[in-house]
Amino acid sequence: MNALVPITIRIRQSGRIQIISYDRPERRNAWNVACARETISAVVQANADPGIGAIVLTGEGTTFCAGADMKEGTEYDPETGHRLTPASFTMGSGDHNWIDLLARSKPVIAAINGLAVGIGASHSLAADIRVAAESASFSFPFLKLGAMPECGSTALLPRLIGPGRAIDVLLRSSTISAQEALAWGLVTQIFPDAELLDGAIAIAQQLAELPELQVRLTKQMLTANAENGDAHAIMRNESEAFIQLLKAARREKPL
Q1: CA 33 and chain centroid, separation
Q2: Helix, strand, coil shares, percent, the chain, to 5
Q3: Which of 33, 98, 145, 201 has a CA 20 to 30 Å removed from the CA of 122?
Q4: For 152-211, where are the alpha helices, taking DSSP H only?
């Protein structure tokens, strides 16, 4: 894959941490198709780079992501002719399935540094860990705008905050403050605004130091088992993961 030359995002490295920042200040970091495309490409490249151990997603300035850019010009898929949107771009297959991409990814921390609206909120739900600035908020205005929840939020939000709260939030097009997000389990830590990025990088550095295979297998087991009521399937999934780990250890053992 060719090196990414970003237009709508900013990419920088801090040690073994890749920081991907949405960088459209004139649009409050709203996603257009180009931003969705560049973000996916940046995650794919970070995963392929052995020098990267974890990824931080954040926004430049005081807004994380103001949702989909409703004033963006129309773009069409050259193969199908269908109209492209940031949401449709993340609901495809392979790397274009945002949930699957992050599930297969190195650890991803979303650092919510301000407003996260619509897809700006929903795409952060697939991150492994979410932390927030004190001024941050999550807004899910889909139904109020005549749209519908997307980017996997109908599955991920109930897992994170519970089905009762999730249906209340989505049906009422609610906004969740950072303090509510912490109390409900949507984020795991709140930082003063000026300390958010440093805090997120510190967490990412902890994760980057862990053994990569064990992290990947643990993520796989959590995805497979979190809502699995079959005790035999749960133990089988864990057993298969340990077998993979033992096989890898044997391959690495010097003769």
Answers
A1: 17
A2: 45, 20, 35
A3: 201
A4: 153-161, 163-171, 178-184, 196-208
